[in-house]
Batch of 3 targets.
Target 1
Amino acid sequence: MGIESAPLLERFPFPFQGDSYRYSNNSTALVPPVCTDITPEYYEEIEEKRRLLELYPERTFQALPHTMEAQWEIMAMLMNELAMVHSNYFTLDKTGNRWTFYNRLLDEECTFVFGDCSTLPYEPLKFIGRHVQEDLIYLQQRDGDLYMDAGQLCFPANWSLAFDLGMTYLQFHSPVPIYSDSGLAEKVRGFLLRMEAGKPWTRLNWTLNVGPRLDTSTEAFDEWGAGKFGLNLDNVGQIMHFRTEDQRLFRIPGSNGILFSIHTHLLPFNQLIDNKVWANRFCKVLEDLPDPIAEYKGFISYKPLLIEYLRRYS
Ligand code: HEM
């Protein structure tokens, strides 16, 4: 079944509004209030997600036992949304507690008893994660703080769910320079603690990727980390990819936690330069970017090469 969509360059979520970038609470109200996007990359990304979930179960899925209720709540929210918003691809039939979820894209059907784990092949967060391109992180709110207590994560930008599990919001952000030690992380946490049901938020995060690889987990660093060696003006356009994370935040009212979804998009530099406004703006952002941010994002050693490439072609 085909998925119709605009060309990549027209639908790519480019994050910069101006010629300079600093960490800030760049969250805005999410309109429409929808978590899932289905793009033409659906088939290859779902195949890759499922491959990683099978091969590396601990790297890609973690959930503390007390999150089971929240997992059911998230799965119900996403199944309802898929059947309503993407009704050409998904249906959901409910007869009492007996639910049948049908994914037309994959021609897969599953009938289960809502709330009864023995009737589902996976834990609910993992089950629904196998049908959507988004990675799904659940934060539990308690004692005036937020804890990363569950997640289905296949495409992290160099972080580890297994390592972060159970950490507070400030703890798992502690590697981020400026954000973690300027008071900004505390402010954003306050904002998240006050988030209301039915009023979701969204923000874009960005970084750079060597190659088209979505799984840049810390655990697999030995497979992708060395890619930055050997970059030059002739190959950088093909090898380097701009990486945007479309992040969305939802209050999960029954469990009073937060669902944080991440949809990752990649755009090769040699396509990015076809949009001269973006290429020019990105070049200025790089020229102006504080070193700690470039270092954290992992490209400080070849930032001059990127600037030279963008100057030449934009
Ligand atoms: C509430 C759900 C959120 C979760 C689960 C989350 C999780 C994370 C994680 C795991 C990292 C990587 C840290 C590392 O290097 O180990 C990160 C980075 C970061 N987060 Fe969050 N985050 C959330 C919300 C936010 C929000 C609302 C902001 C708003 C400003 C934010 C700002 C940042 C920034 C600036 C970075 C550094 C990213 C980069 O430069 O590439 N986060 N986040």
Note: The first helix runs from residue 8 to 11.
Target 2
Amino acid sequence: MAEKILVIGAGIGGLCTALMLAPSGREVILLERDGPVETGNPDELFLSWKRTGVGHLRQSHAFLARLRNIMKAEHPALLDQLAELGVRELTFENMLTEHQLAAYKPEPADEELIILTSRRTTLEMAMRRYAESLENVTIRSGFLVRRLITSKGADGVFDVTGVEGEENGAPVRLTADAVVDASGKSGFTIEQLIDEGASIKEESESSGILYFTRHYRLRDGQDEPDRRSNPPATGDLGYLKFGVFPGDGGNFSITIAIPEVEMEMRKSILNPDIFHQITLMLPGLYPWTNETRSESTSKVFGMGDLQSRWRDMVTDGRPAVRGYFALGDTLIRTNPLYGRGCSFAAVSAQRLRETLDETADPAARAVAYYNRILEELRPFYLTQRRQDRSAIKRAKQALTPGYRKSLRSRILESFIDDGVRIAVRSDIRLLREAMRGFHMLEHPDKWLGKPRNLAKVLYYWSRGKKSNAAAYPPNPGPERTQMMQALKLDYQADIDRMAEPEAAAA
Ligand SMILES: Cc1cc2nc3c(=O)[nH]c(=O)nc-3n(C[C@H](O)[C@H](O)[C@H](O)COP(=O)(O)OP(=O)(O)OC[C@H]3O[C@@H](n4cnc5c(N)ncnc54)[C@H](O)[C@@H]3O)c2cc1C
């Protein structure tokens, strides 16, 4: 008889699990606390979909190529349905500067570097409809899982055999061969296991930023600004990072990420007028948000509590739990700036299927799944955590009066800014290789570890700024003080706060 798998949550991780397990013939039942998709109209859905379980539903989302490639390999028809609903594909060619385009010759590998982007509500609607159409997948909306059904084995390892909850208010108990926990950022079911004493190790730290997103719509007759003749629509000014997410149906969103230490800015940016004013002061955003081009269609959605978190479900080869598999944000959370969360969920779901197909032994399954996750995702997690730590340090230093960077820091920064960045903006082959790491198609550091690539980076670095002048992007925006003064914000307050011993030590 086919195995029965219960999945807690029909967000991205739950849907990916359905996509991966359905072809294996298993019975897959997704239990989702929130209501169903009640309209086929993406604009209506964006306005009306109540998603208590996904606080970041209206934050900008894009899917890295790794996720698209998985969809393409496993469910090509889903890509057609995404396109029908207006989900966009941004190709490698779209990313090239004018200078790079002149020398560009398409290669088959470029097909593997395509990003999917739209409002998250639209992406989710397309994935959900497609998953619902699969024969052995059921989505039970309005089902809040309250508890896992657990027992502790004689060996001290927990067994999960089902869930208890409420379906549209009525109590329900369901048993299964395995439970997949894809309950996401707001999920609480794994806490039960931790509270009961399952040996789940957790490391967690702040990613150091807050996210602010506002949606816009192109005015009638207007197209998106040309990416090549305008300054880059993403950038990093130190005190803020920005990016445009092209959406479906003439919509797009702007996300501005602010370091946690920039208290004045993060308080004020929720004001739509301040948010808009910032966009108009950034040369990469002005072409998108000026009055002629577009109008805003939403408030500013703010999002904090952006933690990086890794959970180990196996310690020294011994599983904490049998019959229970965590994935998505329940298992690993990453800084949204890298856009990796949904791809992590998809890769995990794929590895879960391989594991379930490989063995029926519950303990062996737990260990094999864990090892696959460790091998596939840990390098990306560690790289982003390293980058976050260094960005947090830099944001604090920028507010520290009289701070002078060490020689080592200056050399490292110059290597990244004047070496790596300029090399990938100059040489398409290098950009292609770097993008493979960015899109999680290979180890994030692999491309730079190749002697030929490192030599090329060193070549550009050693040429100096004058020879590389054409490869530098235009200035992304004003200095902090200038921006704060224009916004009538107190630019000194955070500097004073940083001078207090507790803040500096934090
Ligand atoms: C601000 C922000 C921006 C992001 N941008 C990107 C991006 O651009 N690209 C990217 O790849 N990732 C991005 N991410 C990360 C990405 O959104 C998550 O990694 C992804 O949604 C994880 O999927 P999930 O299934 O674990 O959680 P979710 O997609 O949040 O789904 C969890 C589901 O479980 C349901 N649920 C919770 N508890 C229960 C319960 N007890 N019973 C029943 N149902 C329950 C919820 O209602 C929800 O539907 C972003 C994250 C944030 C916070």
Note: The chain is about 40% helix and 25% strand.
Target 3
Amino acid sequence: MSAPIAMPSPPPRMNIVGSGKLGRTLARLLSDAGVITIGAIYNRKAEHSRSARAFIGAGNIADNLEQLSDYPAPLWILATPDAAIHSCAQQLAACADIDWRGSVVFHSSGLKTSAELAPLQDLGSAIASAHPAHSFASPERSLTRFASTVCTLEGDAPAIEQLGRLFSAIGGQTSVIDASAKPLYHAATVMASNYLVALLGSSQSLLAEAGIDEGLAAAILAPLMQQSLQNGLKVGPVNALTGPIARGDIETLQTHLDAIEQAHPDLLNAYTSMGAQALKLARQQGSLKQQQLTAMAQLFETEKTTH
Ligand SMILES: NC(=O)c1ccc[n+]([C@@H]2O[C@H](COP(=O)([O-])OP(=O)(O)OC[C@H]3O[C@@H](n4cnc5c(N)ncnc54)[C@H](OP(=O)(O)O)[C@@H]3O)[C@@H](O)[C@H]2O)c1
């Protein structure tokens, strides 16, 4: 059994700037776990703060950033959209009545680094970014699905240490990442999460063009996608790849391309780009002849250049 995580007593108060999908979910999880108390909540629109307070079950609504000085807190999350994090940090730094010395301030962008918070670091805060690799599309669902999410941390050591304890307390697995690796790390998570959804949408569009209704399309795609994903995660992408590319079946691929060009030409590039990636896996399987691999590579390349 792992040793219990030492938590400061009493739990620190956390102020929240930007309590949308991620901000309210983390606040509720941490508060329910008893590892923080909720201080103030600020969003530009008061209705967003009110709905967050209802969801979290606690919090004082601040009408503007200056009012946050009425709620001193040693812990702050800036969970605004990425583009607003730095300007929020600048505006907060300009609030003369907030004492930042000894505080921990973090944001949750996957791409941006803790450097976005430098204006507050200059005033004595330990700063960090803490990115949960989780889709917070539905805060209610995320409350029960968050456990075991990997949270990548980067920034000042005291902030990383405290956030490590907090995320562990709500079931997260924490890992430290180098700031320079964040763009590639984030691109990878976007591909795995958002592009999977885009792939689902593309398959549904082709099935609709084939005259297959939504219910049947879901029945076809749900087990197919789930099995492929499970296989890929279990045995690795090279071993999991099946289908026409793994078999070197160029006639089938040509027929697909002709049909997609007729019905949904906007999906041709997606088909050939992902086909080229699948071809790399087929090459690594080692069972196809060089001639077959070259013919498929040329087919995908030709389609790309003619559209
Ligand atoms: N959603 C996810 O699945 C997810 C996953 C991992 C990481 N993240 C990261 O989490 C952060 C928040 O994303 P989100 O999806 O929760 O965004 P969101 O749902 O759009 O919420 C953003 C919140 O910030 C407030 N806001 C916007 N501009 C502001 C400003 N200038 N000052 C103060 N508040 C402001 C908005 O309210 P007002 O418009 O009323 O100000 C809103 O309540 C981002 O850094 C994102 O990259 C999100």
Note: DSSP finds 13 helices and eight strands in the chain.
